[in-house]
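INFO worker-7 received task bundle
INFO bundle size: 2
INFO processing item 0
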Amino acid sequence: MGQRKAPKDGDRKVGRRALLIGGTAAAVGTAVLARDELARLWWRVPGVEKPRKEGEVDFAGARWVAASDANWRRADRPDDYGIDMVIIHVTQGSFASAVKVFQDPEHGAAAHYIVRKDGHITQMIRELDVAYHAGNRDYNERSIGIEHEGFVDRPQDLTDEMYEASARLTARICARYDIPVDREHIIGHVEVPGTDHTDPGEHWDWDRYMKLVREASTAKA
């Protein structure tokens, strides 16, 4: 196709009124950005801490077991960091070993939830806080991490109970933060940029899992 001609008014001079309106809009935009940045910084000020109840969980039926403070960062999500993603992991070990390492301050990582083979769900970090689970700071700040007990090379570890419980959990998270139920927003750890992890592995049935999440999302409360 040939080159399109510029519109006749393409080089029209901008009037003083337009400049004033544009300047006002820019000032408002700057103020909004400054407010958002202050909201993020507020919860990092020493001595400032959002009120929270000890042992409180974000998903009904989950059991609370606290991860080490060294494996996550206090925040006020989604007010300071928007949440638009769920990241699926596999522990590469037993449920007990995953809990143990998430409580180890030397480990340097932990997820918000662990789903056991029998469908039991343990929460170790509040959703409002940033868990060190993705190996990517940006993804950590915008996501919820869900670990699943088992090994990536053992399909028998991925039980019906686990899929169903995890799908209900993910559906609830998506509803709470208005996250689209699709593969752009529900991803595997392997899909995080810069990671060297392969979980949840080739045996994780994404078609089955997404179908279960959609069903849980539309089910009546």
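INFO item 0 finished
INFO processing item 1
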Amino acid sequence: MEELAREAGITVRTLRFYRERKLIPPPRREGRIAWYDEDHLARLRTIAALLERGHTLNGIAELAEAFDHGRDVGELLGLGAPTEETPVRLSPEELADVFGEEATPENLSAALDLGYLGTDGGEIVHVSRRLLDTSAALVREGIPLADVLAAARRVRDHADALAELFTELVLTQGGRTTDDLKRLRPLAKSVVDAEVSMALDRKLGKLTGTVGPEGQAPHRAARTRRSTHEAP
């Protein structure tokens, strides 16, 4: 314990306090000897970094509990499962840097439950660089991370339904296999991307008044009505 405290730059009394608060995991014991390792040292350095960023010990304790009970990276990514996404490895303090005050225990637990985050030793693993960057960009725009994660859960439900639809479309054709599904996967992504883009165009048009409720431009609809009225 004295050696660990010295390496971490804290007092033994502080270390005992952290142990009592369950901020660090218990040591490995061999008889009357308690062994601490690099994981304990990394956790203590993380605590120090989070304290410097303004987090309270209560908040750090909740973060540590969520982190310790998170799914490991193998369960998160699915061993051997194909993916086009690039996982990102982060330390807890790096995650705090990305989301600032939004890196709360509640949001971390929600992200773990959603499957965005997993754990691998002393690191946090985010399932997708694209999703991480997008979430961070939305938070920088002032959207609470809790709302981003709630929306992500709804998007996940719709995405699962779209994947099921495309799978049925391909595999119900005679002789099609999962190899065909993998080969045609980019086509599904192209359709979804185009449809979401057009849906946003329609939504923006309605909000700005440039598109009527049926998806037509108002001035065009007016010309059509005049032409119909003038026709014999």
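INFO item 1 finished
INFO post-check item 1: The first strand starts at residue 28 and ends at 30.
INFO post-check item 1: The mean pLDDT is 82.
INFO worker-7 idle
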